[in-house]
Amino acid sequence: MSETLRFEAFSSMVEPEFWSGLAHHKLHSARLDTARTVVRGEFSGGRRHAVRGNSAEPTQRLAVPARLRVNQGAWEAAQGNTQQQAGAVGVNGYLHNTNTIEEFKKRDKGELLRDAGAEILEAIRSGRATQTPELLWPFLLLSFADLKKYHFYHWFAFPAVTADPPDMATEAPAPLSSFISRSSDLEHLLTTFAGSSVCAQGAFVARYYPSNVDNPWRVGPLSEWSEIYGSDKAEDGGIALLGFVDPSSHSTRPGWPLRNMLTWLRHCHPEAANVNILCFRDTALLAGGAVDGATLVQQCESIVMRVNVTPVASLTSECQVSGWERNEKQKLVPRIVNL
């Protein structure tokens, strides 16, 4: 099997309090200043929702959109408060608020994406993204706040540096529960994540030792690539994986953050042409509790896939960027909130 890797795009989820914060920002801070402003958002592992049928139909587990959440706490980023919900990955967003609806409509959307893509590539090349992975997943918010009517015109973008030719999935995605050898190995992985900040960073490297009952996992940040993933460990019986917190709940499609993760990989570790990807979706299980391994396996949503990475030298364009959010009808148009 070898097919083009497809991704589940982000969907914005904005709480009403955020728009009140935007109105306050416009009136008391920005006024007529249209310089971009840092706001804060977050995402978590994707979970399917159980939907109960009638007595004759079994319970179904339905996929839900991959959410990027923005709330009132987005404005606290300016004060250096970057806290997020337990199990969530915090990311910076860049608000571009215009003064008129005409400016909003005429703003060059392509330029905004290209600039964001260039910043992502700079963070990768400089090594900053290796130390701070959230730099791989900024979001953009173009807006106009009509404070006379309390209408908020807006458009989110989730910039992704895309590969052409595309990266390829060389094996069908498999549930993590079938990838591991024992149910207790999942318990160990969750315990490892719960005891470190690696999961909160959104990206990690891992090594799985199927024959090691007591200590089957080694997990660390991207900066520990050589120590954990490196080719010099090929004979230790471990299976190397590149992992990320995956907001997708689709059975075969990984979430949008993997696009820039693979961009990081092709630039920083071109020797890793064919990699195992751990799409970790079980952030909701990190709270722990008295749940046995067999039950965890049943609840596990994470998947493992193998990807062939297009090398930089083969790309037709080094900074081809996409990411403007589509509406419910899959059209590229802005949205309006009426408060």
Key attributes of the depicted protein:
alpha+beta, seven-stranded mixed β-sheet, 10 helices, 17 strands
How would you summarize what this structure contains?
This protein has 339 residues and is of the alpha+beta class. It contains ten helices and 17 strands.
Protein topology:
Elements lengths: L2 E2 L5 E5 L1 H15 L6 E7 L5 E3 L8 E3 L3 E5 L18 E10 L2 H6 L2 H18 L1 H4 L7 E8 L4 E12 L5 E8 H4 L3 H12 L3 H4 L1 E6 L8 E4 L4 H4 L10 E7 L11 H12 L5 E7 L12 H7 L3 E6 L11 E5 L10 E4 L1
Parallel strand pairs: 2-6, 7-8, 13-14
Antiparallel strand pairs: 1-10, 3-7, 4-5, 8-9, 9-16, 9-17, 10-15, 11-12, 11-13, 14-15
Structural notes for this entry:
The protein is of the alpha+beta class. It contains ten helices and 17 strands. α3 crosses α9. The radius of gyration is 21 Å and the shape is globular. The strands form four sheets. The protein has a seven-stranded mixed beta sheet, with helices on both faces. Strands 3, 7, 8, 9, 16 and 17 form a six-stranded mixed beta sheet that branches. Strands 2-6 form a two-stranded parallel sheet. β8 and β9 form a beta hairpin. The relative contact order is 0.19.
Low-confidence stretches: none
- Major sheet details: 7 strands, mixed
**What is the H-and-E element order?**
EEHEEEEEHHHEEEHHHEEHEHEHEEE
Percent in strands: 25-35%
The secondary structure category is alpha+beta
How far apart are the first and last residues' alpha carbons, in Å?
Answer: 50 Å
Strand order of the largest sheet: 1-10-15-14-13-11-12
Strands, count = 17
Computed CA radius of gyration, to the nearest angstrom: 21 Å
Summed up, the helix count is 10
The helix content, as a percent range, equals 25-40%
Estimate the global geometry from the Cα principal axes: globular
Mean pLDDT: 90
